[in-house]
Amino acid sequence: MTAYKVLLVYPNTMMSMLVPNAIGVFSALLKQEGFAVDLFDATLYRTDESSSDERKAKNLQLRPFNLGERGVTLKTAEMETDFQAKVAAFKPDLIAVSVVEDTFPIATRLLNSISRFNIPCVMGGVFSTYAPDIVMAESTVQYLCRGEGEGALIGLCHALSTGRDPSRIPNLWIKKGDTVIKNEMREVLDVNKLPIQDLSIFEPQTLFRPMAGQIWRMAPIETQRGCPYKCTFCNSPANNDVYKESDAGRFYRKRSMKHVYDELVTFRDRYKIEYIFFITDTFLAMSNVEFDEFIEMYSQIKLPFFMNTRPETLTLDRAKKLKAVNCHRVNIGVEHGNQRFRREVVGRPVSDEQMISSFKYMNAAGIPVVANNIIGFPDETREMVFETIELNRKYDCDTINAFTFSPYHGTKLREMALQRGYIKEEDRVTIYTKDSVLNMPHFSKEEISGLIRTFALYVKLPKKYWPRIKVAERDDEEGRKAFAELAEIYKQYAMNRIDDEEVVC
């Protein structure tokens, strides 16, 4: 008997983000259940002038890198043509796609290109969870998964492969003629019972990613699912609300260190992974006991690793222990420099003192820090952006990121933007390195883009350069000329750490 075939689709923007943990888990689960699996990955297709990493490097937010040094080349063929060929060759019984808001348009393009094959499709992911009506309006989507997809996907495959009715599978929305069946949420799964990710499903080239100017064979590992914090710009807190309202359990869970260790060893030994990215929203949301357990476990691995965390999760003791087990870099979420705005609007009750101390701890331990900031929040002003700039000038950081605020579905700040009339219901975000979608009369999209582009210059360079940086904000000939001049000066101050009494970082 021929195995039931599932084609996983990753509608990634060009070279954006790391390979997703979910696809590795789905592939392992499906194979474990006896299904045949293949993957179409859009990551390597040249679909834009530059990737998000290349744009970050241009904006001085990432060190220059060369993917070619590890043999990574982008595909020049038409993505839809290759997708059609993949479908024709593999002949899947089901297509499974996971989307975020940024990638939903890519997914619909791909699915529309193979509509003639009449293959059923299930779509899941964050965007499907928080904008299900938009997703189900697509004629190419027959099934939608809200929340966790592992149990729903396996249940759907077993039902369809045996001719059973899938209409009562939890987490699934199902089209039945002109109606949509909306099933209840299933209880949260035990994350310690999930299989180790199957990285063999990915094309080897897609595992290579830049970090600090170097190209590494990199893989993601999830230590926690969900987040205990309540940032208003993030849709992770909404997962907790959805599951609580559905009486389906507590969404935020932690994996055992034994389970994480087994996956790390497999990545190192079987897949020759060189660098670990802990993709947990707030990696150091751990008790001291849990943290010490991680340190003891990871001392047996010691691959360089990168993580995201918050200032209040860091201490000098933790920083020293992280350094000892080869922590390579840390992302610290600053987000905004106005303490009141950060607390009341952004949902991050962190003091400036806590923020500054967290950087000092990392500096003392010798761990490079990446400062993450967001510009263009609802009701933010140009003057408030300079409060964020001034806060960033108070600590030593290796890299400074400034992202455009994105009003994602499922977030409280999207609701606020709608209430203020800054966006319309039909507005969707683009990838976080591109222009703002908010229409704020007091703070234009052009101003926001200009400040994103020059943010690192304002932070790193002495204030004597600020008048010239203001010129560099403009996207015209003179502005681009000024930016190019300042970028060279920036490299001297920031990259080479030339001493200057006016330079803070």
- Shape-level CATH architecture of the largest domain: Alpha-Beta Barrel
Helix content: 25-40%
Question: Uncertain segments of ≥5 residues (pLDDT<50)?
Answer: 497-505
Task: Give me the number of helical elements.
Answer: 18
Number of strands: 16
Percent of residues in beta strands: 15-25%
Number of domains: 3
Q: How far is the N terminus from the C terminus? A: 65 Å
Largest sheet: 7 strands, mixed
Instruction: Give the C-alpha Rg.
Output: 23 Å
Q: What's the CATH H-level superfamily name of the largest domain?
A: Aldolase class I
Q: Output the structural class.
A: alpha/beta
Identify the CATH class of the largest domain: Alpha Beta
Tell me the strand order in the biggest sheet. Answer: 2-1-3-4-5-6-7
- According to CATH, the fold-level topology of the largest domain is TIM Barrel
Shape assignment: globular
Average pLDDT value?
Answer: 91
Descriptive notes:
The structure is a single chain. It is built from 18 helices and 16 strands. With 505 residues, it is of the alpha/beta class. It has three domains: 178 residues, Cobalamin-binding domain (Rossmann fold, 3-Layer(aba) Sandwich), CATH 3.40.50; 239 residues, Aldolase class I (TIM Barrel, Alpha-Beta Barrel), CATH 3.20.20; 38 residues. The strands form three sheets. It has a seven-stranded mixed sheet, sandwiched between helices. A hairpin with a 2-residue loop joins strand 8 and strand 9. The longest helix has 19 residues. The chain is globular, with a radius of gyration of 23 Å. 44% of the residues are buried.
